[in-house]
UniProtKB/TrEMBL annotation, chain A:
It comes from Herrania umbratica. The chain crosses the membrane at residues 305-324, 361-383, 845-866, 881-901, 928-948, 968-988, 1000-1018, 1038-1058. It is an enzyme of class 7 (translocase). It is a multi-pass membrane protein. One of its GO terms (molecular function) is ATPase-coupled intramembrane lipid transporter activity. Residues 1076-1088 have a biased composition (Basic and acidic residues). Its main location: membrane. This is Phospholipid-transporting ATPase.
UniProtKB/TrEMBL annotation, chain B:
The keyword Transmembrane helix applies. This is ALA-interacting subunit. It comes from the Eukaryota. The chain crosses the membrane at residues 54-77, 315-340. Residues 21-31 have a biased composition (Low complexity). InterPro entries: CDC50/LEM3_fam. The gene is LOC110427225.
Length: 1120, 362
């Protein structure tokens, strides 16, 4: 969006200010020094002096870890037990030491420890990585001035103290926030790169105070004494207030003199500076805040399901204890004891028939523990593991790797993966996101004549839309003999190669390019090959300077007071170097919408050269300056229709007297310390920027990013709504919309307009707010998942507010990426991120959670049915250790494999059938019906397992040798059936068997037998009922095996029949695609297109017209 | 089922999912040594060769048919095995109470004065091949009650050294003289009915050896552990034990201590190791000592032969036949459904979101 430029210019303002005046102006804040918030005192070069030590500022040691060695255990445990389910298990584990427990304490504790341990290990590993980074940073070396030896000595960063004098060399990071004293350059300037702070790669100029800029040799440094009083540590990266007391004088300090930690010294051999903020006091550390944590819809619903399960648990326990109470009460009838073998006469409170109600209550507690298997203890940790693995897959995807920027996709947070599969609305930034934000100078209108013959992408799209036959695309590379210059795509033989002098208005053309070549803030840099490249704050500015250079106005030197151009002299017809004295820069701001410079050219003319928004410039033209107004207006209109950004260019000559008077006032205003200084300055600028003479207009094209139209097309076919937030004119927006196939034929309205006055007002206050506000409103209107995608700092609000923020790591820096949940290199990767990874992750997590509940309900309810046959006494049907291994060993890996690897259809088909994505948007894999269906399936499975098993093997002998199945044998048989059943259900419900799935599923089943053999061979005091139960009792019994077969097949039948029916008669999208794939039809392109497109065209004709100022209109209207 | 092997993957590539192989040519990869480009492997790109089964009508019908075809014969074989088992079940808890006590069976069973002997006559319906297993079957007896199950000391049973390990046995852990061996409610309530069999006034030998699991005899019940203070407390539960025989040889106790899963259970009493001819009358003299009257439990004497599926077990066969039959039925139903409603997959008008545009419950 436009706003990105605005912010950059505001940084610029400071820089230009210092360029122009070379002295920071005291601000209001300077008056506050010494007061609250501005109390920091630094004794430069005297870190050891008493006063400094007394202040006791923090050292430069930095720790970003969440835990320390000491608090890791308690703190991470505390984090763990903030989850309801974990608290339940902790309480259960504590109670397990009492006689209430149906299990032995260790068997309850071990799974809890495993689960908690796994989560803690994950936390620990993550924290360890952070620690390693800290250690690396803390042990970096920096040269610190040592007064005793009068020389610089290497010291570790962590040993740096406030007041230390340091020397930083080229390409080194600043170890702390440093006050710049002097540099290898004469005037005490230096260049820094702030990539790590705001991601901007362009260099920033820093400037030492004049009084200190001469400090170079050791003697002077030794004698250097000064005191800095400045603001307290704060997080504002773009402000600094301080005063330097030196030589009985005081000097104001601003951000220009401060070098921030984590930025890098560039193009400067070395600097000297004084440490003013260290360690956690530095701005970058203060600025580091955790992004707001987001939770996914599925997770929120999962919590609800856990509550449902808790309710079920309580209900089941209550029913159990009710029956138990009745049965227990019956044990004593008059003088008789019914179940005498339980000794009801001499019993404990837990079974006392005389205190049956109390026993019932205690039994309720027992029940809560017994049926605790309804709550999947390992669910949370499994989901966390799965999500981390999923994000590794996202990070590793080669198809989302951007060659140009060398950036793979990166899931910065792993807990939103499945939300990627449920996005119903995308909010997209335009500039830099849909477009490259690499501006190309394509057209211009000078003196009423339009120049530039290229056709923009928008023009091509519009022509296509109108159904016109395109003129043969001009072989672009042929014209300019194949040399393409970045930022320049202008071809017109009337202008290029010096031909402009033959044009009728050559003088106007000359002035036009003077404006382009001087009215900017770019800095030229010579490369090794002696070419000049420009460091510009914004790509359009670069485009102008490049254009001027290509036409023959080469800007090659900028210093504080002048700009030098290499240009054609109209008189001598030779290229000469000309120097323009730069007198003032009236900088750009979003309010002014224009920028101008006042220069004195070699002919001693005073010129004001201006460029700005057409509306602003046009109203400032003098009467005789309107010669080309009509044509220029028309051209501007046409350019913006073609999706180009336009600026009007004008100039005026100033009289010496007029200028002198104005300058006096202007400087006075600039140096004033009153609150309305900015207003005064603006007013004065306004006064001089009048009576302009129009020269023409420029048009730059912001190229669409590669693959954007295709990607948007796919996303639209997936029926995702896309809203583009743009500050463009309505016409431009519509045309860009067509170009990127956002708007289609037959759609009646554009998606969004952002041109209401209200928004303008908001823009001034800060772009973050606008986008965040829009995002919030969209979220509240649709109530569905929104994804925001953007690349600039202005999108941060939007990214953080949306359910998912995707940052594009493009030219506008890393701020958006830092605030995002996922980062990608190109907009077009969004297609794969959503349609493939999003779809898969959604499906995986949804299936995984459903299955998790299924397997635990199956298991939990077999316990309940058994209870019904054990007079609800709380005796578990299985050996303690079978149970504690259930979630951890016999069923965990397959479900993780499902969560990590399952694919309903391949990536290629996901992309080919974008409609598949609607499964996630409609949430059809995780709606309550489906969840309850799985739960019902679980109950059904448990019934089948329990009743078939008990009826088959108990009672009569179960072996030829006449032995009967006892408690131990029934437990093993039922458990075997449970393990088989849940694993086979898994095999039935997944669509994708690699060797991993096979290994995990069949391995889990095999492991159960192995476990049973190992456990059964332990001494009977340890193994109790499992002692030799498989080897001696079960394995030789044919009945055991054929019962297993019967039970397992029977439990699978309901799901299998349902699936068979559903696939045939209620097929879901993925079923259809799988079917086509299996039939080898998926290459039949036509049919596929027809199938996927028919509903899309309908949604496309949806009318979504939303004004930003009344977002109440409901887009919920659907075609029915 | 469809095997879809992505590409011509060799099995080694498939097995070594982590095996990293760069797809780019060597020259370019050398130039981009520092590139952050993710390395290619089938694993990381999620392109492992996979089997992607889908439930086509053919597969569904075939599966159902195969299950039916396998299950019904298994059912029939099981059923016939069950048919070959001869089983005599005689409930005697009612019949063994003298008529004058029929109102107050509890008084009869609890009195030490009453005559507990009782004679029953069983008819052998078919030839019963040796060995004939003798079981007693109790009903409504909760051997799986938590209090009951836990009321034992495995350590004490196993080794003399842990004689005093009776904390789980309360209230049958200690008497004044010391620990009870074997302690706990299970041992204390040991079943004490006895049976004597005769055919035509000739006594039938009942072999009570090897009725317990070997593992129990060898590893759970110690050969140096002798009953001590057993049934010496105020309240006598069930049978008494000969304190000169180590626990490892007290097989009735071992069988009893192996708790039953459900409230209705059989336990092995012994074996008759000779054939019983059809229509022979077996006379059983029962010492009806065990109190099931207080909780309304039945007592049954069971004589049974076994086959490969164990004792008489019609349920399994019937279950197999039912499931098999159901599968065949489903197979036929699906065939009919497919014939009647041959709608191809892939009709978008049946997509859920097209049917209900207002959306699903969220």
């Amino acid at each position: 969006m436009e706003m990105a430029r605005v912010r950059k210019r505001s940084i610029h303002l400071n820089k230009l200010c210092s360029l122009a005046c070379c002295r920071p102006t005291p601000t209001d804040e300077h008056a506050q020094i010494g007061q609250k918030g501005y109390s920091r005192v630094v004794y430069c070069n005297e870190p050891d002096c008493q006063e400094q030590i007394r202040l006791n500022y923090r050292g430069n040691y930095v720790s970003t870890t969440k835990y320390t060695a000491v608090n890791f255990i308690p703190k991470s445990l505390f984090e763990q037990f903030r989850r309801v389910a974990n608290i339940y298990f902790l309480v259960a584990a504590c109670v397990s030491f009492s006689p209430l427990a149906p299990y032995s304490a260790p068997s309850l504790l071990v799974p809890l420890i495993v689960v908690i341990g796994a989560t803690m290990a994950k936390e620990g590993v993550e924290d360890w990585r952070r620690r390693l980074q800290d250690v690396e940073a803390n042990n970096r070396k920096v040269e610190v001035y040592d007064k005793r030896s009068c020389s610089f000595r290497e010291s570790k960063w962590k040993n740096l103290r406030v007041g230390d004098l340091v020397k930083v060399h080229k390409d080194e990071y600043f170890p702390a926030d440093i006050l710049l004293l002097s540099s290898s350059y004469e005037g005490g300037v230096c260049y820094v790169e702030t990539m790590n702070l705001d991601g901007e790669t362009n260099l920033k100029l820093k400037h030492a105070l004049e009084v200190t800029s001469s400090l170079h040799d050791a003697e002077m440094l030794k004698e250097f004494r000064a005191v800095v009083k400045c603001e307290d540590p704060n997080e504002h990266l773009y402000s600094f207030v301080g005063t330097l007391y030196y030589d009985c004088q005081h000097y104001s300090l601003a951000l220009q003199q401060v070098l921030l930690r984590d930025s890098k010294l560039k193009n400067t051999d070395y600097i000297y500076g004084v440490v003013i903020f260290t360690g956690h006091d530095t701005k970058v550390m203060q600025n580091a805040t955790d992004p707001p944590s987001k939770r996914t819809k599925i997770e929120r619903r999962m919590d609800k399901i856990v509550y449902v399960l808790f309710s079920t648990l309580i209900l089941v326990s209550f029913i159990g204890s009710l029956f138990f109470e009745i049965k227990t009460k019956e044990d004593i009838s008059g003088a008789n004891y019914r179940r005498w073998y339980l000794r009801p006469d001499k019993t404990t409170v837990f079974y006392d028939p005389r205190r049956a109600s109390l026993s019932g209550f205690f039994h309720f507690l027992t029940g809560l523990m017994l049926y605790g298997y309804l709550i999947p203890i390992s669910l949370y940790v499994s989901i966390e593991i799965v999500k981390v693995l999923q994000s590794i897959f996202i990070n590793q995807d080669q198809a989302m790797y951007d060659e140009e920027t060398d950036r793979p996709a990166h899931a910065r947070t792993s807990n939103l993966n499945e939300e990627l599969g449920q996005v119903s609305t995308i909010l997209s930034d335009k500039t830099g996101t849909l477009t490259c934000n690499s501006m190309e100078f394509v057209k211009c209108s000078i003196a009423g004549t339009a120049y530039g013959r290229g056709m923009t992408e928008v023009e091509i799209a519009l022509a296509r839309k109108r159904g016109e036959r395109l003129p043969e695309p001009m072989p672009i590379d042929d014209i300019d003999s194949g040399i393409s210059v970045k930022g320049f795509n202008f071809r017109d033989e009337r202008i290029m190669n010096g031909q402009w002098v033959k044009e009728p208005h050559a003088d106007v053309i000359q002035k036009f390019f003077w404006v382009l070549a001087t009215c900017h803030t770019a800095v030229p840099e010579k490369t090794e090959s002696n070419e000049i490249v420009y460091e510009a704050e914004s790509p359009d500015e670069a485009a102008f300077v490049v254009a001027a250079k290509e036409v023959g106005f080469q800007f090659f030197v900028r210093n504080q007071t002048s700009i030098k151009l290499h240009e054609l002299d109209l008189v001598s017809r030779k290229n000469v170097d000309r120097e323009y004295k730069l007198l003032h820069v009236l900088e750009f701001s979003s309010a002014r919408k224009r920028m101008s410079v006042i220069v004195r050219n070699p002919e001693n003319q005073l010129l004001l050269l201006a460029k700005g928004a057409d509306s602003v410039i046009f109203e400032r033209l003098s009467k005789h300056g309107r010669a080309f107004e009509a044509q220029t207006k028309e051209h501007v209109e046409r350019y913006s229709e073609a999706g180009l950004r336009t600026l009007a260019v004008a100039y005026r000559e100033l009289g010496d007297n007029e200028y002198r008077l104005w300058e006096e006032e202007f400087i006075k205003a600039k140096t004033s310390v009153t609150a309305d200084r900015d207003v005064l300055v603006d007013e004065l600028a306004d006064r001089i920027e009048r009576d302009l003479i129009l020269l023409g207009a420029t048009a730059v094209e912001d190229k669409l990013q590669k693959g954007v139209p295709d990607c948007i097309d796919k996303l639209a076919k997936a029926r995702i709504r896309i809203w583009v937030l743009t500050g463009d004119k309505k016409g431009t927006a519509i045309n860009i919309g067509y170009a990127c196939s956002l708007l289609r034929h037959g759609m009646k309205q554009i998606v969004i307009t952002l041109e209401s006055p209200e928004i303008e007002a908001l823009e001034k206050r800060g772009d973050k707010e606008v986008t965040a506000k829009v995002t919030r409103q969209v979220k509240s209107i649709t109530g569905k998942t929104t994804l925001a995608i953007g690349d600039g700092a202005n999108d941060v609000g939007m990214l953080q507010e949306a359910d998912i923020g995707v940052g594009i790591s493009g030219v506008e820096g890393m701020q958006a990426v830092m605030a995002s949940d996922f980062s990608i290199g190109q907009f077009r990767f969004l297609e794969r991120l959503l349609l493939v990874h999003g779809h898969w992750c959604y499906r995986r997590i949804a299936m995984m959670i459903c299955y998790f509940f299924y397997k635990n309900i199956t298991f939990g309810f077999t316990l309940f049915w058994f209870e019904a046959y054990a007079s609800f006494s709380g005796q578990p049907a299985y050996n303690d250790w079978y149970m504690s291994c259930y979630n951890v060993f016999f069923t965990s890996l397959p479900v993780i494999a499902l969560g990590v690897f399952d694919q309903d259809v391949s990536a290629r088909l996901c992309l080919k059938y974008p409609l598949l994505y609607q499964e996630g948007v409609q949430d059809i894999l995780f709606n309550w019906l489906r969840i309850l269906g799985w739960m019902f399936n679980g109950v059904l499975s448990s019934i089948i397992i329990f009743f078939l098993t008990t009826n088959s093997i108990t009672g009569q002998a179960f072996r030829r040798d006449g032995q009967v199945a006892d408690f131990a044998v029934l437990g093993v048989t039922m458990y075997t059936c449970v393990v088989w059943a849940v694993n086979c259900q898994m095999a039935l419900s997944i669509n994708y068997f690699t060797w991993i799935q096979h290994l995990f599923i069949w391995g889990s089943i095999a492991f159960w037998y192995i476990f049973l053999m190992i456990y059964g061979s332990l001494p009977p005091t340890l193994s109790t009922t499992a002692y030799k139960v498989l080897v001696e009792a079960c394995a030789p019994s044919v009945l055991y095996w054929i019962t297993t077969l019967l039970v397992v097949i029977s439990t699978l039948l309901p799901l299998f029949s349902y699936r068979a029916f559903q696939i045939r008669f209620r097929p879901m999208e993925h079923d259809r695609i799988q079917k086509r794939r299996s039939e080898g039809l998926e290459h039949e392109h036509d049919t596929a297109q027809r199938l996927s497109e028919s509903p899309v065209t309908r949604i496309s004709s949806d009318l979504i017209s939303i004004r930003i100022d009344n977002l109440k209109a409901s887009p919920r209207r659907k075609n029915s | 089922m469809e095997m879809n092997n992505n590409g011509a993957a060799t099995s080694s590539a498939a097995a070594g999912g982590g095996g990293v192989s760069t797809s780019t040519s060597d020259s370019s990869s050398a130039a981009k040594r520092n590139s952050k480009k993710p390395k290619y492997s089938r694993f990381t790109q999620q392109e492992l060769p996979a089997c992607k089964p889908i439930l086509t009508p053919g597969l569904v019908i075939t599966t159902f048919t195969i299950i039916g075809i396998i299950f019904i014969p298994i059912g029939l074989v099981s059923l016939s095995a069950s048919e070959h088992v001869v089983e005599i079940v005689d409930r005697y808890d009612e019949g063994c109470v003298p008529p004058n006590y029929s109102k107050d069976k509890l008084a009869y069973i609890q009195s030490s004065l009453t005559n507990k002997s009782c004679t029953r006559t069983l008819n052998v319906p078919k030839l019963m091949k040796s060995p004939v297993f003798i079981y007693y079957q109790l009903d409504n007896f909760y051997q799986n009650h938590r209090r009951y199950v836990k009321s034992r000391s495995d350590k004490q049973l196993r080794s003399k050294a842990y004689e005093r390990d009776t904390k789980s046995c309360d209230p049958e852990g200690f008497v004044l003289d010391g620990p009870i061996v074997p302690c706990g409610l299970i041992a204390w309530s040991l079943f004490n009915d006895t049976y004597g069999f005769s055919v035509k006034s000739k006594m039938l030998e009942v072999n009570k050896k090897n009725i317990a699991w070997d593992s129990d005899k060898e590893h759970k019940f110690g050969s140096d552990v002798y009953p001590k203070n057993f049934q010496s407390g105020g309240l006598i539960g069930g049978a008494k034990l000969n304190s000169s025989i180590p626990l490892s040889e007290q097989e009735d106790l071992i069988v009893w201590m192996r708790t039953a899963a459900l409230p209705t259970f059989r336990k092995l009493y012994g074996r008759i190791e000779e054939d019983l001819q059809a229509n022979e009358q077996i006379t059983v003299v029962i010492q009806n000592n065990y109190n099931t009257y207080s909780f309304g439990g039945k007592k049954k004497l069971v004589l049974s032969t076994t086959s490969w599926i164990g004792g008489k077990n019609d349920f399994l066969g019937i279950a197999y036949i039912s499931v098999g039959g159901l599968c065949l039925f489903l197979a036929v139903s699906f065939i009919l459904l497919y014939v009647i409603k041959p709608r191809p997959l892939g009709d978008p008008s049946y997509l859920s979101w097209n049917r209900s545009p207002s959306g699903h419950p969220n």
